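Let's do one together. I've listed all components of the complex below, 397 residues spread over two lines.
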Amino acid sequence: MFTILKLFLVFFKIGLFGFGGGIATLPMIFNDIQTFNIMSVKDFSDIVALSQITPGPIALSTATFVGFRTAGIGGSISAIIGFALPSLIIVIIVSSFFNKFKTNPIVESVLNVIRPTTIGMIFAAAFILFASSVLIKSTAGNTLFTNPQSLISIPALIIFVLALFFSAKTKINPIILMLAAGIIGAFVI
Amino acid sequence: MAKGRVGGVSDSGVLSQIFGGKEADMKQKNKLWTLFIVFLKIGTFTFGGGLVMLPLIQKEIVEKRKWIEDDEIVDIFAISQSIPGIIAINSSVFIGKKVAGIRGAIVSAFAVSLPAFLSIILIISLFSSVKDNIFVGKALRGVLAAASALIIVTSVRLAKSSIKNKFGYIISLISFLVIVVFNINAMWAIIASILIGLVTYVINRRRK
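Okay, and this is what the predicted structure of the assembly comes out as:
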């Protein structure tokens, strides 16, 4: 019972102070769970790798995992609730303020800069995903011009281009597109 | 299923106060149920980081159900990145609150977290070496390649509706480069934007 409460508090703290999205909070999670003394760096990086290939955002999968390893299903539930609770409270407060002050001229000029910044960030996220799926990590230095095939996975690039085409030109549901890409990827990449 | 039928309701809370009727109450329940299903779907197909949610939200919440508009998504993601917590939960709470109040916020946060929870519990109890499975790795690369394409298409659309001038495009480009090349935490980019925004406010006021 004490461990479950402690898990709640640790993840509440991470949820409260973890800025910058899921991947940015991972080092914080690793530091804070040291008090439970259950995981080595290798264990943790295995968990993160597994969290990437399971449904759901990385940080939540990792929290479930850590909770389970520490105190079973109860631990998982307590970690997830602790993690989500600060978001719930903060967003509910912020969103009611936001609607009030949206038209304030100072807030408006700040938003006029934050919006394009966010668009740039989203493109950056897309680029990083592109790089992690289409580019192949090479140990032999920069071979982009001498031997491009050793750097780019052609099948993954084709999937990327097809997805680009279908989502821009048709009304296909993104979920179906990603499922198809996953199935094709498993066989051709 | 409640799919698609609840989109046009403006404010069922007010309706239920006026009529005290069952119908408005039903509509509110339908809305919560639809929120649950939509965020369950979104949570299931978010692999990796929270921004993979963006095309799904755009399709399910903006296009299909018209609960919010393109402009608002950008605001929601901007705020979700600049406050504590992860983007997935922050943005779902934001949208849930807007669509169906505090209950909507709680339902959305719960639904978006459920797939992560269930799949991890399932994997721990069934398999021990999924991550070593080479098929899974390849499937994931296929999914991420498609996800990056989807995000690009969605953000081009969002850029058109929320960037209003050349200055905006320059800011976008700088923000992209700073994050990709220098790997800077998103929070600093937001803080810098707030400062730039304040400076532009002061300059514009002096001009007038």
